[in-house]
């Protein structure tokens, strides 16, 4: 198990380095931050002074080494817009993002898993067809389209809910529903597929042939085995708590990390963008590592494989 964990940690570290490197290079090749921040009418002397002040006049490999050295010392840089530390700007926005994504995650789990299980147990029934229609619709409709439709119906036509902002809990209803529906549809689809695969296994038929009650077969054999592939998508949902609301926050003018990322990218605020991407990468990697460890809990064969690898 120690080797198993060490291998995952090594892969996580390599992934983080690759993500940060990719973001670092792309951001610097996509435009001149000094020209964008200072404006087109700024005198060349002011633009050059800005580049010198922020180290943008150095070769890119020198900037890269300096950036990684700063990361290891705990310095994630400062915003080129207001001079504040990038990590402070990001941490200020995290509560607003979690206020959307955590309730949305609850909706995904509460709707998606039971719907997928029921659809598999009543395969080819009207319930199954209804669940699959919901899954296909929710999975294929882009979140910004769904968000705009909800605004059109419930904010513009009916006037029941506000269309954007963060003044009260009512402002969070539409973005939470927008995030929750798509995730619930995807989770229902994956859960149904996992359950159908397990229900077709020989040991399920053997247990039924021995006279074991169907409820016990489902609870003791089908659900635990179907949970293994379902845990993967649930882990992805946990990992995307920070990054999963980028589009929705923009649609509903919600002041979270996602909207900050969009603003920082358009302004070429390098330190803020890199800080957010680093945070997102670490969140996703941590979630994937937890999922890998849960596999060993849910499937004893994986623990046995890890012990053989160590031997």
TrEMBL record:
UniProt main location, coarse: membrane
All residue ranges annotated as the ABC transmembrane type-1 domain in the record: 94-295
Any single Pfam family the record assigns to this protein: BPD_transp_1_N
UniProt keyword list: Cell membrane, Membrane, Transmembrane, Transmembrane helix, Transport
Origin: domain of life: Bacteria
Listed transmembrane segments: 12-31, 98-122, 134-160, 172-190, 226-251, 271-298
Subcellular location: Cell membrane
GO molecular function, a single term: dipeptide transmembrane transporter activity
A Gene Ontology cellular-component term: plasma membrane
Membrane topology category: Multi-pass membrane protein
Protein name per its UniProtKB record: Peptide/nickel transport system permease protein
UniProt source species: Roseococcus suduntuyensis
Organism phylogeny: Bacteria, Pseudomonadati, Pseudomonadota, Alphaproteobacteria, Acetobacterales
């Amino acid at each position: 198990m120690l080797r198993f964990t060490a291998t995952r940690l090594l892969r996580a570290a390599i992934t983080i380095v690759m993500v940060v490197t990719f973001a670092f290079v792309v951001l610097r090749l996509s435009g001149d931050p000094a020209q964008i921040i200072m404006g087109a009418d700024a005198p060349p002397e002011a633009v050059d002074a800005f580049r010198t002040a922020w180290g943008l006049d150095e070769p890119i490999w020198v900037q890269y080494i300096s950036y990684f050295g700063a990361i290891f010392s705990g310095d994630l840089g400062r915003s080129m817009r207001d001079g504040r530390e990038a990590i402070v700007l990001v941490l200020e926005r995290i509560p607003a993002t979690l206020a959307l994504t955590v309730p949305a995650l609850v909706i995904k789990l509460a709707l998606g898993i039971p719907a997928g299980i029921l659809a598999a147990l009543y395969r080819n029934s009207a319930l199954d067809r209804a669940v699959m229609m919901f899954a296909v619709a929710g999975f294929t409709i882009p979140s910004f389209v769904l968000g705009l439709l909800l605004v059109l119906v419930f904010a513009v036509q009916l006037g029941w809910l506000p269309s954007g902002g963060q003044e009260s809990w009512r402002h969070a209803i539409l973005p939470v529903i927008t995030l929750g529906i798509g995730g619930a549809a995807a989770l229902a689809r994956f859960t149904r597929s996992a359950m159908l695969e397990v229900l077709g296994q020989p040991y399920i038929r053997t247990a039924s042939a021995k006279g074991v009650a169907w409820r016990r077969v489902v609870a003791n054999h089908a659900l635990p085995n179907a949970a293994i592939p379902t845990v993967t998508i649930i882990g992805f949902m946990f990992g995307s708590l920070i990054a999963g609301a980028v589009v929705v926050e923009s649609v509903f003018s919600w002041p979270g990390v996602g909207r900050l990322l969009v603003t920082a990218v358009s302004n070429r605020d390098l330190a803020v963008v890199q800080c957010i991407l680093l945070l997102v990468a670490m969140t996703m990697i941590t979630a994937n590592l937890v999922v890998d460890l849960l596999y060993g809990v849910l499937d004893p064969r994986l623990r046995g494989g890890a012990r053989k690898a160590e031997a």
